[in-house]
Amino acid sequence: MKLWVLRHGEAEPRANTDAERRLTGHGREQVLRSAAQLLGQPLQVILASPYVRAQQTAALVHEALGFGKPVQTVPWLTPDSDPQTVIDELDRLGIEQVLVVSHQPLVGNLVSLLAHGSRQHPAPMSTASLAELEGEWPLAGLMTLQRIVQP
């Protein structure tokens, strides 16, 4: 399995709710730089948080890649979601090439849990950072972190 974990681009500091924060112009540029890293990758699915900034990030990647399937919005990719729940859901999907678009602290904890089996030292995921992981299954401590690209 190959898993890419993308944190949303820079977002507005304020909105009516955290879930409604939108990407800034700079955030859109960041996302497009990260999307370039995914060109030519055989993605099967793009999964995104329901929050506006993650939806906008996923839409930009979707368009930049010319991805043929719609982005799938899932409720288990919000900032405070449990990384183990995400791992369980990814395992249940049984898909080999996945892009996950979400938020901190989830993305840092998820990458750390998959690569090291622990959340004690979250991966450094700034806005629009893209982590690439590989492994037989999406299980805690059993995936290899190939790289984290900072835009």
TrEMBL record:
GO MF annotations, alphabetized: protein histidine phosphatase activity
Highest taxon in the source lineage: Bacteria
One CC-aspect GO term: cytoplasm
Name listed for the protein in its UniProt record: Phosphohistidine phosphatase SixA
Record InterPro entries: His_Pase_superF_clade-1, His_PPase_superfam, SixA
